Amino acid sequence: MVLCARHLMVMVNRMRILLYSANFAPEPTGIGKYSGEMAKWLVERGHSVRVVAAPPYYPQWKVDPNYSWPPYRRETWNGVDVWRAPLWVPTKPSGVARVLHLMSFAITSFPVMLRQVFWRPHLVITVAPAFLCAPAGFMTARLCGAQSWLHLQDFEVDLAFRMGLLKGNLFRRLILRMERGLLRRFDSVSSISSRMVELLLQKGVLVERTRYFPNWVDITHIKPTAANFKYRDELGIAHDAIVVLFSGTLGGKQGLMVIPTVARALAARQDIVFVICGDGVEKPKLEEAAAGLPNVRFLPLQPFERLGELLCSADIHLLPQSPGAADLVLPSKLSGMLASGRPVIASCAAGTELEAVVSKCGLVVDPEDDAAFATAVATLADNAGLRMDLGRRARNYAETNFERDAILGRLFGTAGDEAAVTNDAIA
Question: CA-CA distance, 112 to 374, in Å (whole number)?
Answer without folding.
Answer: 50
